[in-house]
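Hi R.,

Here's the chain you asked about this morning:
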Amino acid sequence: MYKSKITGVGHYVPENIVTNDDLSKLMNTNDEWITERTGIKERRHRKNRNDSEETSAFLGFKASEMALKNANLTSKDIDYIVFATLSPDYFFPGNGILLQEMLGCDTIGALDVRNQCSGFVYAMGVANAFIKAGVYKNILVVGAEIHSFGLDFTDRGRGVSVIFGDGAGAVVLSATEDENTQGILSVNMHSEGKYAEELAVKFPGSKFGWADRLLTEPEALTPEDIYPVMNGNFVFKHAVTRFPESIIEALTKAGKTIEDLDLLIPHQANIRIAQYVQQLLHLPDEKVFINIQKYGNTTAASIPIALSEAKQEGKIKKGDLVMMTAFGAGFTWGSVLMNW
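And the predicted structure, written out as tokens:
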């Protein structure tokens, strides 16, 4: 029976650093306010907000190049792509096929996952199932986002816009038949769609007939339709409940306990959420990897960026029990537990 393991990791972020002080020049905010509420000091934005070259697919391409090199593989070794993003280059087609072309892969399958902050966990769940079923041997799993093009940098949108950044992360997930080596031990994925509009972008969804309205009544579109809206306190309360539930579920399914865990890599949504979950589970600082202070919330990219950095910094060693966990819009949430 096949088992899947991560054989390569990589990440890429734009060079342009945007600090809290930079944002204070655009809206009524300051470094102290942002840091206290989110833990974020800076984030990356593509240099030109309207750049048609530095897209989420391009960021995913750069992260994938690093992951392939780390795995000692080439694009020709990849037989499937799973690309998680909420900020695709086009409304359709998806970014997976754009990445296939950029990398020069063979005419392999490419799937897009639209599960926002939980996107990478969902993508890993899909890829893991394909490998366990013996369908594919090497799957490129990518999370990439360009948020900066679609944020409201005015006082009206500051509660959301200070949080998000651009970036990408990628892993190569490969098949192994050795049950005693590294690999994914358990996966869980959940959703609760009744809260869909607590964190959402409505435009250009088909529900509200935007195409006709955009042509005939452009003034009918409001900022709340176009830009992300978030009920912050409501999201926080659900996140700090679902995170630990999912973590314990993944550990229990694998016959492990929280004491066995070597490193928790949570979705980098808000440092207060991560700290709350850490305290609830009685995890010491060295067992939780946080990099939100440098990149902000990069949605589907946050976990693979953190995973890649943790490996670079020597925070993960062979045999470590590592947990990746996420919660986001939908609501959706889930975890992946693995032996490194």
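Residues 266 and 274 are 7 Å apart (CA to CA).

Let me know if you need anything else.
M.
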